[in-house]
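Data deposition worksheet. Section B asks for the primary sequence of the deposited chain exactly as it was used as input, without tags or linkers unless they were present during the calculation. Section C holds the resulting structure in token form. Section D is free text for depositor observations; keep each observation to a single sentence. Incomplete worksheets are returned to the depositor.
Section A, Depositor: J.P.
Section B:
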Amino acid sequence: MAKKSNNCFNTLDKDITHWMQVHGVSFLQYSLAMVFIWFGLLKPLGLSPAQGLVANTVYWFDPSWFVPFLGWWEVLIGVCFLFRPLIRLGIGLMALQMAGTLLPLVLLPEVVYGPVFGWTLTLEGQYIVKNVVLIAAAIVVGSHVRDKVKK
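Section C:
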């Protein structure tokens, strides 16, 4: 009986992992699009909780035009992730955007790090560090741009 149960689990496991293999990259692609479009639109609408962080990080730019500009840049990244031929462009735009996103780790340590410098993060710090996941997702999506499209 244990062998039959194990075999059933093995079959189910194979089916689930196959489904993830077939659909996982698309889920990453479209979730990146959703996050960039959503977060991006908040900036020109004046609704982003990150507006102050952006303004304080790139203080050499006037936030009245730069924050909306950055928001539209992020929307463009998201749109690029929606369309396979534009993914490379989206990754390039994202690389530039992410370089700026990580600046507070160096320029605003008092905003990013908690009481135990380097180990604890404020909410803003967590918001920034989670971008590592977005970068990893973009790398995975980018690693499949040369795959043949299934018809």
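Section D:
The chain has eight helices and no strands.
Residues 2-42 form the longest helix (41 residues).
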